[in-house]
């Protein structure tokens, strides 16, 4: 950190040199993994790491810039994935030609009527109903709205699931799907933020985890919209998929390398655009204001800053990046499987990336994202190697081989993640590339 | 009559079972929050850890050929509680104490507890595999008590399993013991004082380091009981308690964080809300069909929410509590 006391930092303390060294080391790590695992699989890792870097940038806006706790990342990734499914999956004619759209329209009307009812009852103080009576009426209105909506959506859902399977998509370009993922995430983030941003940090953490579980339960069980646990595949790519390249005459291994290279280029393009915007925002007056709110919200609110509004802004911006990242991940794997989303892989890992990389420093966060994702991926084969050696050892001394090595080695990733974050918190709480705090004179 | 028996079996008994487990877990969460001021996220995995400690002890006992009329895991519970308490102390010493000594913010401790969660989860699965284990190591069967209700005109019995009975008894005993500890003993009073105002407690001569240790011992022991009971009732698997750590937090917050009795009330409240929400009311209201006019028969399923959304009930209650009354039912720490 280059404080006011020592303006010219040298060696390890110079943020630039430190960053260059660390990025260089990571480049070597990528090369090494690529040598061992082959081109196709390092490209796979890189594409996913790029998407995670985008998501981590989103969390960095929320946590690094604004000090906001968001444990609902998994929820936003699922929302992004489901949105891109809806926009980019081919049109399901069986649904559009059936009674389905009409019944869904009725359900939408019921929903709007319910909302109108609740809003109307909430205004009942204008005709003199106040206090306990009004509260009771509002609760009753909520209940009535819920029953009304359920009475329309349940038969519609059952009908669609039995006749057409699910709603299907709109068959648009996947890139539009990514943007739509960001948009839907933004809308949801607005409401989540409205509800929960007033809470203190640990309450906010628990509330957002709860909300993300609610989102997961909804997406998993709304079979008529997302096909739920039956999964949707294959999702179209914005770039040619390996099978298309094979059709054009390239060999199978080559086709995977070129297809993934193409996808990587798209993902990196999105990441670079987002990075430039986020980095510029950090340096500008907007970023300064956000840091002021983070560091002392009482002082900033007394300076006339709208703390809650600004925090809502941050929450929405961060969630947009998360939604886009989730959409990219779903598009890349070509399958949307709601039961594949776990808080460990999709919420806590992002947190580890941001904290290890350095909250508040975008370069650090991108570094952390790539580093942690590679560590996460390679700890499985490494653990398998260790286990196989141990197993032959125990075999040779007569204890028998270790059973279920495959499934156990997979768990090593979770353990390593836990170790990394506890070590980081204890010995490098500000991350590998700490936020550079500039102070004038 | 059958309808009432169905209601008792489906709501009263299973709600009490779930409530006991939530309450035991929530007491630990709330005590840790009261003393150390951070949300201990790894509590669910401490419960799983306790269950696996019981499992190992029970298996060791069973392999020595000891057979008892009670489930083995229940017999070894006191020893397992001690071991889990020691493990909890070790976790605190290794991961949380250094951060506290540095004066880290509660947020950092919360993130550290997530790290501990990941480590425990990974470790448990590395050692025991990710499949389901049978905690009835001695080959005991889950005994089911059936109370015949024919004297009241019922055709079906009220049924309750042996582990459930044990659970009610143990939970009641532990809650009573905790109550007397907190209100009668010097140390318990010191704990409440520190939960109220830590600096004031320290200047009035309370050994705060000791209080912190006692908190971990109680939390660890209760987590072990809750985990073992849960695995006796359902099944022993590595993600046993991770799935219910959020309802437990919901229970602690609804009851008022830092408030031990609130945690008990919150636990039962959340549990009954969940069971009642997915309960199919048609089963109870079926006699009304005889009274209702033609064409107004009750639908086959009259549950408030579909069963898939059972866990979300806890979160909805949590979110509403946080919005309407952030201090919980009893006045806990504010948000």
Number of domains of chain A: 2
Mean pLDDT of chain B: 85
Number of strands of chain B: 2
Strand neighbour order, sheet with most strands of chain B? 1-2
Average pLDDT number of chain A:
87
- Could you give the distance between the termini of chain B? 46 Å
Alpha-beta classification of chain B? mainly alpha
CATH architectural designation of the largest domain in chain A: Orthogonal Bundle
* Helicity range of chain B: 55-70%
Q: For the record, give the distance between the C-alpha atoms at the N and C termini of chain A, rounded to a whole number.
A: 15 Å
Separate helix tally of chain B? 14
Biggest beta-sheet profile of chain A: none
Order of helix and strand elements from N to C terminus of chain B? HHHHHEEHHHHHHHHH
What form of chain A results from the Cα inertia axes?
globular
Shape summary of chain B: globular
- Helical residue percent band of chain A: over 70%
The helix/strand order of chain A is HHHHHHHHHHHHHHHHH
The CATH topology of chain B is ABC transporter involved in vitamin B12 uptake, BtuC
Task: Give the CATH class of chain B.
Answer: Mainly Alpha
């Amino acid at each position: 950190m280059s404080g006011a006391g020592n303006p010219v930092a040298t060696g390890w303390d110079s943020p630039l040199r430190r960053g260059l060294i660390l990025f260089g080391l990571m480049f070597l790590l990528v090369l090494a993994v690529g040598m061992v695992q082959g081109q196709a699989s390092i490209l796979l890792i890189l594409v996913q790491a790029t998407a995670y870097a985008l998501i981590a940038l989103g969390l960095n806006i929320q946590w690094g810039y604004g000090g906001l706790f968001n444990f609902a990342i998994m929820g936003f990734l699922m929302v992004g994935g489901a949105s891109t499914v809806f926009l980019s999956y081919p049109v399901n004619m069986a649904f559009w030609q059936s009674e389905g759209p009409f019944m869904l329209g009725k359900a939408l009307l019921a929903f709007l009527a319910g909302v109108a009812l609740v809003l109307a009852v909430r205004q009942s103080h204008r005709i003199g109903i106040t206090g306990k009576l009004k509260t009771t009426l509002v609760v009753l209105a909520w209940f009535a709205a819920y029953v009304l909506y359920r009475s329309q959506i349940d038969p519609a859902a059952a009908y669609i699931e039995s006749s057409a399977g699910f709603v299907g998509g709109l068959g648009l370009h996947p890139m539009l799907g990514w943007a739509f993922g960001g948009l839907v995430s933004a809308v949801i983030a607005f409401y989540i933020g409205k509800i929960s941003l007033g809470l203190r940090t640990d309450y906010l953490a628990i509330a957002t985890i709860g909300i993300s579980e609610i989102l997961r339960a909804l997406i998993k069980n709304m079979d008529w919209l997302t096909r739920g646990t039956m999964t949707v595949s294959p999702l179209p790519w914005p770039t040619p998929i390996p099978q298309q390249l094979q059709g054009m005459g390239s060999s199978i291994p080559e086709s995977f390398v070129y297809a993934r290279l193409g996808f990587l280029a798209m993902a990196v393009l999105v990441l670079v655009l987002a990075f430039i915007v986020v980095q510029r925002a950090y340096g500008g007056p907007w970023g300064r204001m956000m840091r002021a709110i983070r560091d002392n919200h009482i002082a900033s609110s007394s300076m006339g800053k709208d703390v809650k509004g600004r925090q809502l802004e941050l929450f929405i911006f961060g969630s947009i990046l998360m939604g886009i990242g989730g959409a990219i991940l779903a598009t890349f794997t070509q399958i949307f499987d709601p039961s594949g989303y776990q808080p460990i892989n999709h919420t806590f890992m992002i947190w580890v990336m941001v904290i290890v990389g350095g909250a508040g420093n975008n370069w650090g966060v991108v570094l952390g994202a790539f580093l942690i994702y590679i560590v996460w991926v390679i700890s499985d084969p490494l653990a398998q190697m260790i286990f196989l050696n141990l197993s032959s050892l125990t075999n040779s001394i007569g204890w028998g081989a270790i059973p279920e090595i495959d499934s156990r080695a997979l768990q090593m990733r979770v353990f390593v993640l836990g170790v990394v974050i506890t070590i980081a918190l204890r010995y490098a709480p500000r991350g590998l590339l700490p936020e550079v705090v500039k102070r004038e004179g | 009559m059958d309808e009432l028996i169905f209601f008792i079996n489906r709501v009263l008994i299973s709600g009490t079972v779930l409530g006991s487990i939530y309450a035991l877990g929530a007491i630990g969460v709330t005590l840790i929050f009261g003393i150390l001021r951070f949300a201990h996220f790894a509590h669910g995995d401490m419960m799983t850890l306790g269950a696996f400690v019981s499992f190992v002890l029970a298996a060791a006992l069973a392999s020595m050929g000891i057979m008892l009329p009670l489930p083995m895991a229940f017999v070894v519970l006191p020893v397992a509680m001690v071991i889990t308490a020691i493990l909890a102390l070790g976790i605190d010493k290794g991961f949380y104490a250094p951060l506290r000594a540095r004066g880290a913010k509660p947020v950092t401790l919360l993130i550290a507890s997530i790290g501990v969660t990941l480590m425990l989860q990974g470790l448990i699965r590395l050692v025991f595999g990710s499949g389901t284990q049978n905690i009835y190591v001695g080959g005991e069967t889950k005994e089911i008590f059936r109370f015949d209700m024919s004297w009241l005109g019922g055709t079906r019995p009220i049924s309750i399993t042996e582990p459930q009975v044990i659970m009610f008894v143990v939970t009641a005993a532990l809650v009573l013991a905790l109550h007397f500890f907190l209100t009668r003993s010097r140390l318990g009073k010191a704990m409440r004082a520190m939960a109220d105002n830590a600096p004031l407690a320290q200047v009035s001569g309370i050994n705060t380091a000791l209080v912190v240790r006692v908190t971990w011992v109680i939390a660890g022991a209760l987590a072990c009981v809750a985990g073992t009971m849960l695995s006796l009732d359902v099944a022993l698997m590595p993600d046993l308690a991770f799935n219910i750590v959020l309802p437990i937090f919901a229970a602690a917050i609804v009851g008022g964080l830092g408030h031990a009795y609130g945690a008990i009330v919150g636990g039962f409240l959340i549990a009954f809300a969940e069971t009642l929400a997915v309960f199919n009311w048609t089963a109870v209201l079926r006699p009304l069909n005889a009274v209702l006019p033609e064409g107004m028969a009750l639908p086959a399923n009259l549950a408030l929410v579909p069963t898939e959304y059972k866990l979300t009930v806890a979160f909805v209650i949590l979110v509403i509590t946080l919005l309407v009354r952030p201090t919980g039912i009893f006045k806990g720490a504010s948000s």
